[in-house]
Write a structure and sequence with these properties.
Blueprint lengths: L5 H6 L4 H4 L3 H10 L2 H10 L5 H11 L3 E5 L10 E5 L6 H14 L3 E5 L12 E4 L7 H12 L4 E3 L7 E3 L2 E3 L6 H8 L3 E7 L5 H13 L10 H7 L4 E6 L14 H14 L8
Parallel strand pairs: 1-9, 2-5, 2-8, 3-4, 3-5
Antiparallel strand pairs: 6-7, 8-9
């Protein structure tokens, strides 16, 4: 089964440049994105689901999580566990694995791309980041928010990019605040150290320079996963932030940006919001 199919992705792209790529270059891209290897691994674990699949992928790549501040995870898991998003795949694996180890069950907020991996469907609540969601979609999300499930979330909605002279998340979505308040969920912040490769960020900057709208750098995320093989992945967990903290002294959008700034201060030892 082809979970990743570059030929199909380029054919369905809205970019004329991408559609006209010569065959030899497409073959080169397939090697760069590790299409054959990724499809082989996904098929290897085709009968695994959820937590079992996540942990098997972590073991497959011999990822070595080094998480400090685990004692800050509250006993009541009805929280939003939020993080910066420097890697795109590895941070998602480590975040969900950490939460499942503590609480067993969880739901991961992800975009539609996550639903292309059948093994993740039972634990993923997919949100259409780039378009409007249907009423049924919204109702299903509200059921998840109202449940007792721990929820993992990357509020930037996209992988960190080069911004203002360094790699960091773009603005965080205000929904992380509005949903935390309306569903009385405390927020537990995670900070992941590191970033994707220079190649990933160079392609992003070249794409922006030429005005290509298609996020072609995302095709490199499997490549970035292989780059992290046998590597130690460091993260720090901050202290839980009561949902009542997000009062009307600031707008939800402003609170979301304050939360984003706090995430980056975790690496300096400032664990309290």
């Amino acid at each position: 089964m082809k979970h990743i199919d570059l030929d199909k992705n380029l054919k369905e792209s809205d970019s004329k440049v991408l559609k006209k790529m010569p065959a030899f270059f497409v073959s080169f891209l397939k090697k760069v994105v590790k299409q054959e290897e990724i499809n082989s691994i996904l098929n290897k674990y085709i009968d695994n689901n959820g937590v079992e699949f996540v942990n098997n992928i972590i073991n497959e790549f011999n990822l070595k999580p080094e998480i400090s501040g685990v004692e800050n995870l509250p006993e009541n898991g009805k929280c939003f566990f939020v993080a910066n998003h420097p890697f795109g795949i590895v941070d998602g694996l480590i975040l969900t694995s950490t939460i499942s180890e503590k609480y067993g069950k969880f739901k991961a907020i992800g975009n539609d791309a996550f639903m292309l991996i059948p093994q993740m469907r039972e634990v993923t609540a997919a949100v259409n980041v780039y378009g409007q969601s249907s009423r049924a979609y919204v109702l299903e999300f509200n059921k998840i928010y109202s449940s007792d499930f721990p929820i993992t979330h990357f509020p930037a909605g996209m992988v960190s990019r080069w911004r203002d002279g360094k790699v960091q998340d773009f603005d965080w979505q205000k929904s992380v605040i509005t949903k935390a308040v309306s569903h009385k969920r405390d927020i537990v912040p995670f900070y992941f150290y590191g970033s994707n490769s220079k190649l990933f960020h160079s392609i992003y900057r070249i794409r922006k320079f030429f005005g290509i709208k298609a996020t072609i750098e995302l095709a490199l995320l499997p490549h970035e996963l292989f780059n992290k093989k046998n590597k130690t992945i460091k993260a720090v967990i901050g202290k839980p932030i009561p949902w009542q903290k997000f009062d009307k002294s600031k707008s939800p959008w402003d609170w979301a940006q304050e939360l984003r700034k706090h995430i980056y201060k975790l690496k300096d030892g400032k664990l309290s919001f």
